Amino acid sequence: MTRNPLQPRFGDPLPGLSQALMKAWTDGRDDFESPEDVASGLGPIFNGVSCVACHNGPATGGSSPTTVTRFGALINGIFDPLIGLGGSLRQAFAIRPDVVEVVPPQANVVAQRQSTPLFGLGLMEAIPDATILANVKIAPVNGVLGRAAIITDVVSGTQRVGRFGWKAQQATVLAFAADAYLNEIGITNRFFPTENAPNGNTALLAQLDTVADPEDTVDPATGKTDVDKVADFMTLEGPPPPLPLSPSAALGRNVFNQVNCQQCHTPVMFTGPNAIPALSSKPVNLWSDLLLHDMGSLGDGIAQGAAGTHEMRTAPLWGLRASAPYLHDGRAATVDAAIRGHDGEGKSSRDHYVTLPPAQQQQLIDFLLSL
Ligand code: HEC
Ligand code: HEC
After folding, report:
1. Widest CA span of the chain, in angstroms?
2. Among the four residues 107, 201, 292, 337, which has the most C-beta atoms within 10 Å?
3. How far apart are CA 347 and CA 260, in angstroms?
């Protein structure tokens, strides 16, 4: 079968971009793919040398099974991210092997987090805060409530509804790009100008940090830094392309509603007016309410941003067929296992799924693998 050239693929830009925006997308993708080295500011401690190292499947900007480690101490019900000891994110590599971070003995919570796909992030960013806030229920329905993650956006300095990351810890693509440059690669930038010290050891940091901060500098040709360019790339990434529904998948759509998955996995939200036509007043079929839910035993035990230890952002389900394994730590090899892993506010829906006849479970899975 030959491919219809009009049929979008994973990793394509948004449709209908101007020439200037197409160039911003390509330039940003180049930076997203290009590795940093010690001279350009890599580390001293880091988790990867480029964004694409963890965001690559099935195309640049996608996901990967690579996980990063979060740690902290839960004492009398209060979570301490152990910032003075290098928490809550561990950097697993270093430019000098003897300074690689370890999980300190003070930590009694350790969690893995999987690399998420970045397709369609500009559409997600363009959803107005008010639209996400409108998803919050006044009283629990089948045990489902949900809460918006109100955080301070480092870019604007204002209170915004967080929507990116497993904990909805960032509200904007630019803020997440800046956060990732510092915390995954060790590149300081105008939003995060201070280098991470290995397990909090500032004396070691002083020996190793030889590049002046901020390490992310303006490219005279474009007037943009790498953080800006990579944010452009992610903002202009097209959404995952859905598949036509097979007869079984079409039946699975009804099962999805019947067992109340849509209470959290909202099929569609709309973007507001936007300067970029491809992002303006568009449907976003992300299958998430972008709220935090108390997931009980599935929660990762880490408090971050507005999210408590058991709260997780409803994972968007678009592009699911390309992002296995599933759940925040990749514990679920299959969609079936991911559904069975739901707990807390997701328990009633999961319990309903478990009692369905196998044929209906299969229809639901066929549906989810078409999104
Ligand atoms: C070592 C692997 C690794 C590297 C390198 C990495 N990331 Fe990530 N990325 C992750 C993980 C893990 C998450 C989920 C983080 C979380 O929520 O705790 C993530 C999440 C994200 C998100 C949030 C997407 C969403 O689902 O809402 C963005 C945006 C992002 N990364 C951008 C970048 C950029 C830009 C770079 C390069 C500067 C980068 N990442 C480098 C592992 C990585
Ligand atoms: C209470 C809200 C809620 C309900 C109801 C719910 N989910 Fe989820 N779902 C979540 C959250 C939150 C996550 C992310 C949890 C994590 O990984 O820690 C998630 C994750 C998933 C994932 C894994 C996604 C990934 O990228 O790893 C799948 C698949 C999924 N849900 C399917 C379903 C299906 C099917 C139903 C109905 C049977 C359902 N969910 C009901 C909140 C919910």
Report:
1. 63
2. 292
3. 11
Cα 342 from Cα 297, distance rounded (Å) = 8
**Dist CA 6 CA 319 (whole Å):** 18
Distance (Å, rounded) from C-alpha 167 to C-alpha 165? Answer: 5
**Ligand 1 neighbourhood includes 349 CB (under 6 angstroms):** no
What is each CA distance from 6 to 2, 3, 60, 119, in whole angstroms? Answer: 12, 9, 20, 18
Q: Over the chain (371 residues), what is each successive 10-residue block's mean pLDDT?
A: 75 97 98 97 98 98 98 97 98 96 98 98 98 95 95 98 98 98 98 97 95 95 96 98 97 98 98 98 98 98 98 98 98 98 98 98 98 98
CB 211 within 8 A of CB 5: no
Cβ neighbors of 95 (< 8 A, separation 6 or more) are 38, 42, 43, 44, 45, 46, 208
Number of the ligand 2 atom closest to the C-alpha atom of 114: 27
Instruction: Give the side-chain half-sphere CA count within 13 A for 166.
Output: 26
CA of 106 to the centre of ligand 1 (A): 26
Mutation test of ligand 1: which of 30, 52, 55, 187 has the most ligand atoms closer than 8 Å to its C-beta?
Answer: 55
Q: Which residue has the tokens 């491919």?
A: 3
Q: Is 55 in the pocket of ligand 1 (CB under 6 A)?
A: yes
213: its two tokens? 């901060």
Residue 292, both tokens: 């935090």
**Using CB atoms within 10 A of its CB, is residue 202 exposed (0-12), middle (13-18) or buried (19+)?**
exposed
How buried is residue 56: exposed, middle or buried, by Cβ count under 10 Å (0-12/13-18/19+)?
buried
With vertex at residue 16, the alpha carbon angle to CA 12 and CA 19, rounded to the nearest 5 degrees, is 90
The upper half-sphere exposure of residue 284, i.e. CA atoms within 13 Å in the direction of its Cβ, equals: 29
277's tokens: 């036509």
Pair 122, 236: CB distance under 8 Å: yes
The residue whose two tokens read 């900007």 is 61
